[in-house]
UniProtKB/TrEMBL annotation:
UniProt key word Transmembrane: no
Protein known as: NB-ARC domain-containing protein
Organism: Nyssa sinensis
Pfam families associated with the record: LRR_14, WHD_DRP
Top-rank taxon: Eukaryota
Domain Disease resistance R13L4/SHOC-2-like LRR, residue spans: 111-218
Domain Disease resistance protein winged helix: 2-57
Keywords attached to this entry: Nucleotide-binding, Plant defense, Repeat
InterPro entries, per database record: LRR_dom_sf, LRR_R13L4/SHOC2-like, WHD_DRP
PANTHER family the record matches: DISEASE RESISTANCE PROTEIN RGA4, PLANT BROAD-SPECTRUM MILDEW RESISTANCE PROTEIN RPW8
Length: 276
């Protein structure tokens, strides 16, 4: 959620030495402290709202946030953030094309197997989320110059990303099913999440160019070796568990077991190699 705030420009810093992520975390903690949101016990990274708070949020944001369903007949001109309901099977709603300043699109399973080319008409898009779909990412994705958060999760059709993807000027959160070489151009990347890449062996030499990384998360990548330089990343998570190990040079994940001792992370330093 913090990266969504950052992508939309909701977080600003008056101190050049203060990271936007840290400011966002303080905002989040304040919302929790005031009981506007609660941490959910159902899984890591989930939270919930009281019904009254949720109703108030919906009322306040009703003109800018919209869930598009098969029954949706009109779309407010001021809408900025849209979510496509899984019941939507009739293709891209034409009235949405009249919205000139759309900032966010969330599209999940049930929409179809072809990414709507109309999405590329929204030049001001900052957040683009595809979840559980089955299509290739179009080469023109690199034309979305304002895109700041891109999520491509459980997309069976996207084996890699086009080289034009690397032309994006600002991208601070990335969730991939494979690791393309063009990522080396994304020097502003703050968070990298690689999930369900069962045949992915390496993150390639591109990793060394990602000098702004603050967190790397690996989920169910049984053959993956982490590259040199992983030790400079403040937070490294593997299958939900965070590694705090100085001098980490190279690791591999061999199991997705819930038992930490059987995950099979191999830590190799200059002198020896040991299993955790």
């Amino acid at each position: 959620m913090i990266y969504n705030w950052m992508a939309q420009g909701f977080i600003e810093s008056s101190n050049q030495n203060e990271e936007l992520e840290d400011i966002g975390e303080s905002y989040f903690d304040e919302l929790v402290r005031r009981s506007f949101i609660e941490i959910s016990e159902e899984g890591e990274g989930l939270f919930k709202m009281h019904d009254l708070v949720h109703d108030l949020a919906q009322f306040v944001a009703s003109s800018e946030c919209l869930t598009i369903k098969s029954t949706t007949k009109s779309i407010p001109e001021r809408v900025r953030h849209v979510n496509f309901d899984s019941s939507l099977h009739k293709g891209f709603p034409r009235p949405l094309l009249e919205v000139k300043k759309l900032r966010t699109i969330h599209m999940g399973s049930g929409f179809g197997s072809i990414i709507p080319s109309e999405i590329l008409n929204f030049r001001f898009l900052r957040v683009l989320v595809f979840f559980g779909l089955n299509f290739k990412v179009p080469s023109s994705i690199g034309d979305l110059k304002h895109l700041s958060l891109f999520c491509l999760a459980r997309n069976r059709g996207a084996k890699t990303l086009p080289e034009s993807f690397g032309r994006l000027e600002v991208l601070e959160c990335l969730e991939l099913v494979s690791f393309p070489s063009c990522v080396r151009h994304l020097t502003a990347l703050k968070e990298l999440k690689v999930a369900y890449c069962i045949n992915l062996v390496t993150l390639s030499e591109s990793f060394a160019s990602l000098t702004s990384l603050r967190m790397v998360e690996i989920i169910n990548c049984p053959k993956l070796f982490l590259p040199e330089g992983i030790d400079r990343v403040p937070i490294v998570k593997i299958n939900g568990r965070e590694l705090h190990r100085h001098g980490l040079i190279r690791s591999t994940v061999e199991s997705s077991s819930d038992d930490w001792r059987t995950i099979g992370v191999t830590i190799q330093d200059h002198q020896n190699e040991q299993d955790v």
